Amino acid sequence: MPEASRLFAAKNTIELWQQQGLLRAIDAQLGSLLQGAGTLEPIAALGALVSYQVGRGHTCLSLPQLLRDPVKTLGIDDSSSEFETQFRDLMPDLAQLVAALNRCDSVLCVAGADAVDALQPLVWDPQRQLLYLRRYWQYEQRIATWLGDRTAQLQQAGPAEPLRAVIAQLIAPKNDAISWQRLACANAAKQHFSVITGGPGTGKTYTVVRVLATLLSFHEHLRIALAAPTGKAAARMEESVNAALADTDNPALLRVKSALSRKASTLHRLLGSQRNSRYFRHNSAMPLPFDVVVVDEASMIDTEMFDALLDAIGSHTRLILLGDKDQLAPVEAGSILASLCQGAKYRHYSAAHRQWLMAASGETLPEPAASVAPGLHDHIVMLEGSERFQGAIADLALAVNACDVDAANQALTKIRLLPAPSLAVVAGQSMPALAADPKASAFWRELASGFASFIALCNQGEVGEEEAINAWAARVLSTYADYQLLTALRSGPWGQQQLNRMMEQLLRSGSASGSGAWYHGRPVMVTSNDYSLNLNNGDIGIVLKHPSDQRLRVVFPAPVTEANPAGVRWILPSRLDAVETVYAMTVHKSQGSEFRHAVMILPDRDSPVLSKELIYTGITRAKQQLSLVIPNTAVWQTALTRRVERLGGLFVASEEQEL
Ligand SMILES: Nc1ncnc2c1ncn2[C@@H]1O[C@H](COP(=O)(O)OP(=O)(O)OP(=O)(O)O)[C@@H](O)[C@H]1O
């Protein structure tokens, strides 16, 4: 086909890709809209593909990468080889595409942070050869501008010496090692934007509480907000902060205790979400009324939410992010924490900042191999050395994080591995099949046995006053959190749905009461936000026969107050539209939670979602005990070497950071 007419060929490719199940309806719709507005088919198809990539977590599409290897870039199943042919038939070469993008009315070509108010649906960044949906390009521009402003402010910090005395009272030095906690404390006290990253138990909460104590030594009064991306993560943040301040007689920490007048909230609630709108009540026109905003579990913040958060942080407010950069990226597009922290392990700070940090913390930082310019890396401190995890779980987490298959296999020898039965046995879906096969029966019963104390407590019930009933319900909720099955996938024989079905068949018979979907002892997870009931996606409740009238109600955790010392609330099942049974949950859903004993179950076949981030997140949900079900060791090994890579235009690591 002559090159010029190639641009006009393959009129129905977008529909074809939708029919083939590659594009989602929303991607194809954008492509069709672009085409309807007179956009050339290849550009309209690129629009559909950028939208598709956003659905996969990327904020943009690299054109050279796409043209070099479309199948890999789009993560398409190798078996559908037709796609590559269709793609190559449709797309001209890079130079022609770039020329067409430059001429297209639906595409804004930008060289930098100009034209944030653009109206074109697509944005082309010719320098980095990235194509964006306008919305995501605008988010990234605003985020980069906000962070750039904060980095410029870094130079204006006050003297270090007064801080040094305060920090020395709050965090003990480490024997023969650098106290990264002291450095993180100095860093966050110095500036208006900081990040404290580290694995589970490395002391992020311990440190941030001391950052607040340090700030309160210099400011008589501080308005402080604590928040996290989900309700569960906010509840856990609240618990950890309370634990970090419990039983203290340190006057600086006592000041923090009295300054924390608000409960930790979700980011949505903090920013003021509005019904049927993606915009929040707090924004640059009405910034959050706080001096310090601390956000935990920052690995779950996507690009859109980060933009909304920064927009609501006024120039006098300090923002401190806490999180584990190695955890799974958020469900929506972007991987803010991982991108912010990409050079964090090198601890390369610019010369003046390094000197200041050493003076304020009393610690000695290693000399960098080359001089480093001031930048985002000056805002970030990575903690290390878990204060909670020791032994096998810590060794395994470390090996998985490093994608070190040998070390991970070595650490596995110290972890409890549940023998996985054959697939045929696992796929059996009914109790008769289960009863007929002793091997299957043993496997499922072993998994179900972890719920024994929970079921026993549910069935024990409680007679008496409301206070005693509520205290029992609170014990049921906390006992539930002792044991959790985690799956990598949602469907399939080793997926969450199958496991829930099997657990339900086994455990429901043990507490036979109630009918239909609702029954005594059923753990449920809320699957979408319900503002009228004040329930968030991911909240977990337990269906119980209320001892006062034997009616089924669902008990959820609630803030502990004088009027509600047990911290529970009861909701009628009929008021809950979106819930699912949750003996097992996906690792994605488990982010922000921890369980005394976690059992992670991998599938027997490879899937693109199996990555070292997923495995790391799953195993670090276990507080004390971890069990693993690995039906196929090849799947385990492949997953360990697969990293989640998300393309975005923000904070691309500079060469010198990687030194
Ligand atoms: N410097 C320290 N000295 C004594 N105890 C510490 C120190 N740092 C942390 N700890 C203790 O280690 C435990 C874990 O700390 P913390 O909860 O702050 O970790 P985290 O990084 O916030 O964990 P997670 O990621 O699970 O939220 C806590 O019991 C805390 O009191």
UniProtKB/TrEMBL annotation:
GO molecular function, a single term: exodeoxyribonuclease V activity
Gene3D superfamilies registered for this protein in UniProt: P-loop containing nucleotide triphosphate hydrolases (3.40.50.300), RecBCD complex, subunit RecD, N-terminal domain (1.10.10.1020)
Domain RecBCD enzyme subunit RecD N-terminal: 19-128
InterPro entries assigned: Coronavir_polyprotein_1ab, P-loop_NTPase, RecD, RecD_N, RecD_N_sf, UvrD-like_helicase_C
UniProt-listed Pfam families: AAA_19, RecD_N, UvrD_C_2
Top-level lineage group: Bacteria
Entry EC number(s): 5.6.2.3
Nuclease as UniProt keyword: yes
Reactions it catalyzes: ATP + H2O = ADP + phosphate + H(+)
Domain UvrD-like helicase C-terminal: 582-629
Binding residues for ATP: G198, G199, P200, G201, T202, G203, K204, T205
Mitochondrion in keyword set: no
Entry's family note: Belongs to the RecD family.
NCBIfam families: recD (TIGR01447)
Note: In the RecBCD complex, RecB has a slow 3'-5' helicase, an exonuclease activity and loads RecA onto ssDNA, RecD has a fast 5'-3' helicase activity, while RecC stimulates the ATPase and processivity of the RecB helicase and contributes to recognition of the Chi site.
Function, as annotated: A helicase/nuclease that prepares dsDNA breaks (DSB) for recombinational DNA repair. Binds to DSBs and unwinds DNA via a highly rapid and processive ATP-dependent bidirectional helicase activity. Unwinds dsDNA until it encounters a Chi (crossover hotspot instigator) sequence from the 3' direction. Cuts ssDNA a few nucleotides 3' to the Chi site. The properties and activities of the enzyme are changed at Chi. The Chi-altered holoenzyme produces a long 3'-ssDNA overhang and facilitates RecA-binding to the ssDNA for homologous DNA recombination and repair.
Assembly information from the UniProt record: Heterotrimer of RecB, RecC and RecD. All subunits contribute to DNA-binding.
Name of the protein this chain belongs to: RecBCD enzyme subunit RecD
Organism: Alkalimonas delamerensis
